[in-house]
Structures are given as C-alpha cells and as structure tokens.
Design goal:
The chain is α/β, with parallel strands linked by helices. It has 5 helices and 4 strands. Strands 2-1-3-4 form a 4-stranded parallel beta sheet. α3 (about 50-60) packs antiparallel against α4 and α4 (about 70-80) runs parallel beside α5 (about 95-105). It is globular, with a radius of gyration of 15 Å. The two termini are about 20 Å apart.
C-alpha cells in the first residue's frame, strides 16, 4: 500500500506484429488503454508513451511508420520513464516495451505484469 499516487507507464506492443497496418496499431493502442482504468482505479496515474509520441510525430508531419518514428517513439518512452514510478508490462512481443522494462529495472523501478500486483493507494477515494 502507498499513500502517494504513482505515475505508471503502461508498456506493451504498439507497432510490433502489425506490419505497419494502421488498424492493427490502433487495436494495440486500444489494448494498452484498457489497462488505464484499472491503474487509475487503484489510485494511480496511468501513462502510455504513444499518448505523447504520436502527437509529436503528427506535429512533425509524420506517423508511426515513418523513418522519424524511431527517433520519437523510443526516446519519448525513455524520457517519460525518468518521471515514472513504475511500469506495467502487458503481454506480447515488443522490443520497445522490453526496452522500457530494462530501463525501469536499471533505474530501480518496480515492473508489474498484472494490475493486481500494483499496490493500491491509501486512502482509496470512492470512485
């Protein structure tokens, strides 16, 4: 249990296994987002790197399959992790998510593999 809300990076497949297909990437992002409410309901603030990186790419006139994407997606997650308290690693092959986990462990941050592992915040407000 913790009394401080944690900033938790939700990491998992986004581009992996999609072949660059926009609908498949959108489905992966939606899957990442399904973990946002359970993290929030446990009293913490969820964040997904793509929530930040995709608008940055769009503002540069690029998308997730453009050459610029690797220069934005991976650094965004790394820089974001400098502010995060933990990582929730969702299932599925993803080099980026594996990199996030390695970075988190190097920095001594907890890595959870299930929302049930995340300590609930006390006191828990009624939602």
């Amino acid at each position: 249990m913790t009394d401080k809300p944690l900033l938790i990076l939700i990491a998992g497949p986004y581009r992996s296994g999609t072949g660059g297909e926009p609908q498949a990437m959108a489905a992966n992002l939606a899957r990442l987002e399904t973990a946002a409410w359970p993290v929030f309901a446990a009293g913490h603030l969820p964040v997904i790197g793509e929530w930040i990186a995709l608008p940055v790419l769009r503002s540069a006139g690029a998308g997730p399959t453009d050459l610029l994407a690797d220069r934005v997606l991976y650094p965004t997650a790394d820089w974001l992790l400098a502010h995060c308290d933990a990582v929730l690693r969702l299932p599925g092959e993803s080099a980026g998510a594996d990199q996030d986990v390695a970075t988190a462990r190097r920095r001594g941050l907890p890595v959870y593999h299930d929302v049930a592992e995340i300590p609930r915040r006390t006191p828990q407000e009624t939602m």
